[in-house]
TrEMBL record:
Pfam families named among the record's database cross-references: LRR_1 (PF00560), LRR_8 (PF13855)
Alphabetical UniProt keywords: Cell membrane, Glycoprotein, Leucine-rich repeat, Membrane, Receptor, Repeat, Signal, Transmembrane, Transmembrane helix
InterPro entries, A to Z: Leu-rich_rpt, LRR_dom_sf, RLP23-like
Coiled coil: none
Organism encoding this protein: Cannabis sativa
GO terms for cellular component: plasma membrane
Membrane topology category: Single-pass type I membrane protein
Protein name (database record): Uncharacterized protein
Family: Belongs to the RLP family.
Location of the protein in the cell: Cell membrane; Membrane
């Protein structure tokens, strides 16, 4: 039965809920339905899909029947903790078929994320975004070997990233942004979760260096670890991230197959200073956001190898040196933010060839000289360049004759090296190469 978007309002009578236990498909989403939802004890021995999202339903979450394969109760007014729905002892000894669980955008929920996920081994998608949850991510989530999508964004989660999540090797999307997670980014994310396309830890309390092991993530298209306490240099091997080098295919939608069809992935991505939700075109989006950390060193030349990257944000760090000349190779860049660093030198003439660039922020650095004359660069707001020693349009400061001459004759190169980190990265790649080749070492 599909009664979605039919302007149904008021409370659903009990007789309807009793009747619905015989349904295999029930869609009442996007209405104005209020009241509570009784426990779901469906009679079907095969499968059952329930969509009640975007209503005004309230009260505790209903207990979930073992025959339900997809349940969407998102964007309602449910209250209480989620253990009522997931951890009832009656479900511990039956084969639960649930593959997709969406309880996000229920601000009335509270309490911890229940530690009983081992009873739901078929789960492929979990969305608990914006559900007012606290506490640590439970270890039992690491038993979900089929899990492909994990959304825990915008809660009050704390503690470390559980090691058990390394068992979820099918994960394609992991978004734990806007929480209070501490500790370092684990190395196993790069070596164990090789299917990751989207990795988000934005606005947490992570510390330590960015592990070079993340460079193993060949499919990674979006990495957002902004607004943390990460330090050290930017790994040069980021220039090897294949998902940001090759232009994404326009034919692929990120989706997960289940009993009756497919579930289309969606995720929140911050670009051009704003947050947007992407769904059917998520596969076409690429981005690298390391902003608002304590990163130091230079702008790695290797980043310019990421020719399919659309958004690069390194703002509010302590980066020094120049913008590499090879920046002109990043022809897909639409958004480029280096503001609030200690970068210096001239603005590269080659940046004027970045024809897709429509958001640029180089403010509050130590750049000097003339802004290159081009429609592309001079169409930006003056605020993109303030806080430097720059001249020329769109700024009101005219260039002196000396600055004009210097602009024509000066070429600077990003020759500063971060020796210690470079040596550490070389050793890492040598060890990794030896391990991957599995060559026997024969002693004399």
């Amino acid at each position: 039965m599909d009664l979605s978007q039919t302007r149904i309002s008021d409370v659903i009578p009990n007789w309807f809920w009793k009747l619905s236990t015989n349904f295999q498909y029930l869609n009442l989403s996007h209405n104005q339905i209020s009241g509570g939802v009784p426990d779901m004890q469906f009679n079907s021995s095969y499968f059952c899909m329930i969509y009640l999202s975007s209503n005004k339903l309230q009260g505790p979450l209903p207990r979930i029947s073992s025959s339900v394969t997809e349940l969407d109760l998102s964007n309602n007014l449910f209250s209480g903790d989620i253990s009522h729905a997931l951890c009832d002892q009656k479900i511990h000894h039956v084969e639960n078929k649930l593959e997709i669980l969406h309880l996000g955008d229920n601000n009335g929920l509270s309490g911890n994320i229940s530690d009983c996920w081992m009873y739901w081994p078929s789960l492929k998608v979990i969305n608990l975004n914006n559900a007012n949850l606290i506490g640590q991510i439970p270890n039992s989530m690491g038993t979900l070997y089929k899990l492909e999508s994990l959304h825990l964004r915008n809660n009050g989660l704390s503690g470390h990233i559980p090691v058990s999540l390394q068992n979820c090797t099918m994960l394609s999307v992991m978004d734990l942004g806007l929480n209070n997670i501490v500790g370092s980014l684990p190395k196993w994310m790069g070596t164990r979760l090789s299917n990751l396309m989207f990795l988000g830890f934005r606005s947490n309390k992570l510390s330590g260096k960015i592990p070079h092991e993340l460079c193993y993530l060949d499919r990674l298209q979006i990495l957002d670890i902004a607004h943390n306490n990460l330090f050290g240099t930017i790994p040069r091997c980021f220039g090897k991230l294949k998902g940001m080098i090759t232009k994404p295919s326009s034919n692929n939608i990120i989706s997960y197959s289940f009993y009756l069809g497919v579930f289309i992935e969606n995720a929140f991505v911050v670009r051009k200073g704003r947050e947007d939700e992407y769904s059917t075109i998520l596969r076409l989006v690429t981005g690298l956001d390391l902003s608002n950390n304590n990163l130091s060193g230079v702008f790695p030349l290797q980043l310019t190898h990421l020719q399919a990257l659309q958004s690069l944000n390194l703002s509010t760090n302590s980066l020094k040196g120049n913008i590499p000349k090879q920046i002109e190779n990043m022809t897909m860049l639409e958004s480029f933010d280096l503001s609030m660093n200690q970068l210096s030198g001239n603005i590269r003439q080659g940046m004027s060839s970045l024809t897709f660039l429509n958001h640029l922020n180089l403010s509050y650095n130590n750049f000097s000289g003339k802004i290159p004359t081009s429609t592309q660069l001079q169409s930006m707001e003056a605020s993109s360049y303030i806080g430097n020693q720059l001249c020329g349009l769109p700024l009101l400061k005219n260039c002196t004759e000396a600055e004009e001459i210097m602009h024509k004759g000066t070429t600077s190169y990003n020759i500063e090296e971060d020796t210690d980190d470079h040596e550490e990265e070389e050793k890492y790649w040598i060890r990794s190469w030896i391990c991957r080749c599995h060559w026997p070492i024969v002693g004399m």
